[in-house]
Here is the input.
Amino acid sequence: MGLFRRGARTRDADRTAGVADVDDVTDAAEDAELDGLEVDANGVDAGSEPTEPTEPMVRPGKGGPWDAADVDSIGARVNLGAIWLPGVTGMELRMEIDKATSQVTAVAINLAGSALQVQAFAAPRTEGIWAEIRAEIAASVTKQGGSADDLPGPFGRELLARLPVRTAEGRTGHRPARFIGHDGPRWFLRGVLTGKAAVDPESARALEEIFADIVVIRGSAARAPRDLLALALPAQPGAAPVQATGAAATQEPAAPSAPPLDPLTRGPEITEIH
Here is the structure.
């Protein structure tokens, strides 16, 4: 828990919901040394072409991700403000920061050659937004030269995207990424799996279990749909206070001024080794 590294990327404040540079996601795999997947200039991955599951997938966990009202305490999770994140031995925790506002905008977990990036957003009271967001992400990936398939997964429908990248020879290849999501009560949690977890179910299992055991602290304040819920560094002042009642945190963290939903964007980073 003692090693931190700050990156140098910036966020483009002009990007809008569902439209972003696919390099932001593929860079996550490269920065975390997740290049065990060989990028094929003519396909997704040389020798690991993902296919649609032929049997129903078993959902990890016992019904999560969770709302604050569903749990009695933080338990063994790390308090990151709007997200209580389960800790796993050997994982690397990466906090992504908007350089312009110094707000934490996303958290990424690197584990055993794979990565999971997580963000939480406000959502309408009466309906979920994952179906709409999936369509926007698919359109964005396709527009930028990739492809995306809407498939069944352990959390319901998900996207298996093939993101365009440049190979070492300067040719255009593709790297896989899985977009998963969960509509909670007035919030939405989105995850992006890269590295081995994007194509190998066994490699994805540990990160899927982490995603399934996340607790989202939405709070009671009025927020526009797709507003990014505020994250905080571990043990940093401003993180949502921990309560043992199962209710939402009483202190509302300020909403970041970052664009409302930018599903492929990354920012400067601080990394913590567990």
In short: The radius of gyration is 17 Å.
